[in-house]
Recover the amino acids of this structure.
């Protein structure tokens, strides 16, 4: 994050208005900005491309005369949002069928950097894997008394809302749109899926706010979506029964008004019958009935409803061992397959429980062949260190997308899904994401929506090149090497010092930060490890447990159902085993717990050390300082996790550490 073309006005050095440029500092556009560029075509997004080119050339002094080095042009027969890039006879050409494709093509050239203007290359077609590539915000308009402005937000306040109102200055929102567009995201929902009283009004009385946001995001090809309350019609009608014709008429009218104001509105996001949100169950109706009522209103306008599958009983009786939160989404939704209208997108969290650091892939994804399914990822690091810990999620997401539910010969999740959604990790923090290195998660998400087969390490390299411009620094190899050392394996490191073998929710109830091994045990929210003096884990087998393992197609239900075959990292998710159970690597479960927790905390220390060894000047001092401060907290917290977990299981099991290390 150094480079000659930085200005330094206050706040974060090098950044105008005190805001860090994330992966689009001026240097990211240098290769484009130094060239002669022609842009052919008309339309609002082509205008954005022209503005981007003008900005880049103003920053880098591209020369106006002579034949072009880069031609960006609208051309027929290109895939939607896609583009073809080629280089011949000293000219790089980007041809796209629409303005969005041209914009994506421009940012692609920026990623290629000088390589876009070197040796000739034949035409390469790029098209996004998914039509809808969406970021969802859990932002409240009002400050919620418990959750604050942003629910599970670790990056300051909302980019859109402040204290009950739309922000007067939306320049950050516009800069955010640019960042998102540069990685291919084209849809944003602007309010929390928990829709409280004020936020419910965005659909009606306060629609003007949404219009303004749509205007701000539109120049970067981003369509606005809105989280709505299923109970919205009840305010006028006293009922929200989805089969009541007055209710469907209400939705139709409300939706018509939205489209009158925002013709390219994307659609609704709904969390229904979940954690206290209203839903169709109150009227004895199914979730297909509920989703279809809203979908019917959106269909004439081309909108979609993202209907969340995150439905489970959070008022569980812990004495009832048959109820299993992991089963809930499948139990609710699999029987409804085929009943949803075509513009319903069932939005499924990637794991069956709730964004834990290690979960199997949700079986719902493979159980709904007659339904459009979007996979929901959590960029905001609720359960993965809350943007105080480095936890690079690209490798986790890549694993999810590469999982083949029917076995190696069948399609992978990436091919079954109809869209990808991430809960955003961005806020009004000067670094966007609290932890500057957490920007890479947003970057990786966008890139995976275009190509879910990308190698996460290569994606990280792209991000490093754009963000840090290593080649302009005194020691590119050291900078790149340090970032990889700190980030590449950070998800597994986090897993090591927190959750062993697929156990989840050993977090502090409420804020979900830090260890509390029994925090959720025997609560109405669920019980997650059942540790006693003999063993640990949740029996989710079909033979003796909750039967969750049986929700997978045969290839995996057999593997997961058997303690001998179950992959080690998920053993305690699927089975309750004695502490002496021997894992595939020959270690016992209890020894594995000790070993990984000692190792994980040590890795956190090494990460801090690596970062501290970066010579001053290689990284913008503000970034270096913020990362260093967060690494201090990560080391402290990792030790706390290590000691809490090891002590707990040592005392429960009475089994000493084979290596005689100190356990308190
Ligand atoms: O992980 C849980 C969070 C809630 C969130 C919920 C959900 C928005 O703790 O804060 O609510 O998931 O995904 O709906």
């Amino acid at each position: 994050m150094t480079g000659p073309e930085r200005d330094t006005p206050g706040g974060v050095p090098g950044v105008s208005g005190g805001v860090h440029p994330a992966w689009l500092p001026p240097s990211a556009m240098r290769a484009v900005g130094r060239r002669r560029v022609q842009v052919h075509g008309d339309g609002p997004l082509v205008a954005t491309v022209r503005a981007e080119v003008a900005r880049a050339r103003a920053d880098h002094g591209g020369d106006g005369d002579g034949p072009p080095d880069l031609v960006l042009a609208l051309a027929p027969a290109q895939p939607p949002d896609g583009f073809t890039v080629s280089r011949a006879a000293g000219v790089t050409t980007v041809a796209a069928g629409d303005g969005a494709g041209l914009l994506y093509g421009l940012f692609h050239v920026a990623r290629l950097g000088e390589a876009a203007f070197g040796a000739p290359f034949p035409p390469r077609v790029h098209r996004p894997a998914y039509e809808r590539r969406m970021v969802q915000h859990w932002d409240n308009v009002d400050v919620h008394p418990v959750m604050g402005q942003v629910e599970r937000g670790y990056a300051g306040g909302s980019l859109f809302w402040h204290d009950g109102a739309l922000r007067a200055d939306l320049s950050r929102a516009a800069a955010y749109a640019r960042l998102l567009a540069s990685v291919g995201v084209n849809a944003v929902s602007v309010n929390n899926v928990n829709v409280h009283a004020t936020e419910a009004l965005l659909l009606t009385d306060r629609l003007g706010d949404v219009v303004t946001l749509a205007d701000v995001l539109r120049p970067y090809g981003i369509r606005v979506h809105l989280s709505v309350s299923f109970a919205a019609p009840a305010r006028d009608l006293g009922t929200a029964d989805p089969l009541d014709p007055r209710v469907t008429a209400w939705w139709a009218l409300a939706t018509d008004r939205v489209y009158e104001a925002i013709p390219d509105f994307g659609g609704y996001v709904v969390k229904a019958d979940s954690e206290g949100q209203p839903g169709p169950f109150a009227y004895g109706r199914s979730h297909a009935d509920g989703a279809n009522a809203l979908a019917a209103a959106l269909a004439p306008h081309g909108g979609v409803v993202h209907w969340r599958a995150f439905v489970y009983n959070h008022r569980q009786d812990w004495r009832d061992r048959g109820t299993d939160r992991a089963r809930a989404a499948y139990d609710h939704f699999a029987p409804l397959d085929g009943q949803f209208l075509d513009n319903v997108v069932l939005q499924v969290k990637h794991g069956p429980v709730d964004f834990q650091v290690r979960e199997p892939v949700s079986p719902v994804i493979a159980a709904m062949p007659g339904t459009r399914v979007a996979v929901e990822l959590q960029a905001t690091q609720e359960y993965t260190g809350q943007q105080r810990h480095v936890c690079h999620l690209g490798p986790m997401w890549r694993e999810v997308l590469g999982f083949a539910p029917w076995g190696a010969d069948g399609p992978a999740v990436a091919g079954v899904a109809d869209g990808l959604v991430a809960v955003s990790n961005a806020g009004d923090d000067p670094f966007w994401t609290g932890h500057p290195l957490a920007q890479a998660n947003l970057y990786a998400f966008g890139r995976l929506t275009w190509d879910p087969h990308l190698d996460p390490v290569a994606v990280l390299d792209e991000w490093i090149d754009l963000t840090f411009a290593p080649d302009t620094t005194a020691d590119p190899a050291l900078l790149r090497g340090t970032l990889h050392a700190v980030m590449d394996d950070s998800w597994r490191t986090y897993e090591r010092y927190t959750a062993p073998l697929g156990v989840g929710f050993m977090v502090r109830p409420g804020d979900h930060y830090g260890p509390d091994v029994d925090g959720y045990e025997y609560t109405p929210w669920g019980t997650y490890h059942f540790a006693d003096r003999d063993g640990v884990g949740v029996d989710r087998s079909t033979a003796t447990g909750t039967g969750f393992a049986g929700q997978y197609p045969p290839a995996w239900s057999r593997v997961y159902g058997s303690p001998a075959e179950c992959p080690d990292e998920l053993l305690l998710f699927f089975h309750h085993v004695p502490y002496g159970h021997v894992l595939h690597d020959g270690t016992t479960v209890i020894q594995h717990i000790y070993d990984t927790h000692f190792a994980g905390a040590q890795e956190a220390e090494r990460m801090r050390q690596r970062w501290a060894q970066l010579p001053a000047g290689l990284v913008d001092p503000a970034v270096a300082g913020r990362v260093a401060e967060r690494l201090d907290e990560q080391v402290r917290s990792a030790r706390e996790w290590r000691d809490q977990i090891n002590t707990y299981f040592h005392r429960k099991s009475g089994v000493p550490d084979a290596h005689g290390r100190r356990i308190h």
